Structures are given as C-alpha cells and as structure tokens.
Amino acid sequence: MLPIGFAIEADGVLLQHGRDFAALGEPQIVEVREGVTRTSRLYRHDASGIQIRQFIENYAGLELAATFVEVINTSTRDITITRVDSISAPLARDRYTLQYFRSDWGKEFSPVEVPLEGTRILEVTAGRSTKGMMPWFHLRGDSGRAISGAVAWSGNWIIRLEPEAPSEYRLSAGLSNWEFAKTLRPGESMLSPQFVFVTLEKGDHVDCAIQFA
After folding, report:
1. In the chain, which ranges are E strands?
2. What are the CA-CA distances from residue 131 to residues 13, 127, 188 (Å)?
3. What's the start-to-end Cα distance of the chain, in Å?
4. What confidence category does residue 107 fall into, taking pLDDT thresholds of 50, 70 and 90?
5. Mean per-residue pLDDT for 1-17?
6. Nearest Cα to 137, choosing from 147, 152, 129?
7. Confidence grade of residue 210 (pLDDT, cut at 50, 70, 90)
C-alpha cells in the first residue's frame, strides 16, 4: 500500500500532508457498504485556517483502495484554491517502466511504454477526461512491484511522477491545476475527485486490472 498523503495550493502556497498539516483527533472508520470500509481523518493548517478531511476506502479481499479529500475553509476570509491533489505519496525506490494510453477519435487506448526518467506529467485539459489521454497509468518496477492508478473524474485531470532523489519518485494526482481556481468563502468546502489505485509487491498490469475488475 502506498503511504497515502495529499496536497493543496491555497493562495499561491503549496501545502502538503505530513509537513504542513496537523491531525485532529483519531481516524474514524465506517462500513459504507458490504466489504467496503471508509477511514476518514481531519487535518488542520493553523496559519491559513484550512482543514482537510481525508477519506480512504478499502475493499475486502482486494489490494484496491480509493482516496479523496474535502477542503474546508474554517477561517474568516476568502481562500482561493488552485491545486487539489487527491493523493501525494512517495513511491518505493525502484527502477520503473511507465505504461499509459493515449486516446483520440478512432485511436482510443493507444498504448505507450517508456522508462520512468525525469518528470512525467500525464494530463488532460480539454474538459473531457479521455480527450488525448486516458486517466490511468501503470508502473512496473524491476523488483516486480506493480502500481496502477486512475483518476475517477470526467473533466480535466493530472497525474504527476516527479523525481525527489536518485531512484525516488513522488506520485501526485487529482484535478488538473491548469487554469483552475476555486474561491472558498468562510465555512465553504469542496471535494476532490477519487483516485483509485492498486499496489502489488509482485505482479503486472493484468494482475492490477483484475483488482480493478
């Protein structure tokens, strides 16, 4: 399982889970339907008055999880949100191969496979989630590790794979921040799209697809 975090940009400042937010209280766990548990936890950034409620859903018998966040303005002023990452998580050290699909009229699901080198951004800004690219990726590690993820959203989305150190990467994904801005008045909130993912210590894209199915 990935160490699931989140990130937002508020009034031009990038705020990250684990660095800028303090947890409030204990996690709350409920069964939302048979075989699906949802864990929620509240976090606060004192300087801005922003609270984040993080949700993580787990599925019994599967290596599948989904995560999303609620961004809440508890301050007394308007706050402009310009980036919302449903997930922001470091990847285990490995040498990865990236797989994804390009998509266009008559050319849906055109496969791409490349070594993961440098910064890789998968993104759609056309307003339709599959115009140019599918909102899905797969990473295959030399160790046999497999990671697949998808942004469950019908509009603009982004998946970032950014190096943090040699053989270390950070995954972030959610709403595309291209021309995105949402002003939250005091007391208002917004939800991010779900990011759904599978992590396997040994496997491939077919094994991951079985988990999604």
Report:
1. 7-10, 13-16, 22-33, 36-45, 50-59, 64-73, 79-90, 96-103, 110-115, 120-124, 132-133, 136-141, 146-152, 157-165, 168-175, 182-184, 189-191, 194-200
2. 30, 8, 31
3. 18
4. confident
5. 93
6. 147
7. very high
Confidence of residue 93 (pLDDT cuts 50, 70, 90): very high
Q: What distance in Å separates the CA atoms of residue 91 and residue 168, rounded to the nearest whole number?
A: 7
- How far apart are alpha carbons 84 and 167 in whole angstroms? 26
Scanning the structure block, which residue is given the tokens 């055109």?
A: 110
- Cα 211 to the center of its chain, rounded Å: 18
What predicted TM-score, i.e. pTM, was given to this entire model? 0.94
43: Cβ contacts below 8 Å, ≥ 6 apart: 17, 21, 22, 23, 24, 51, 52, 53, 54
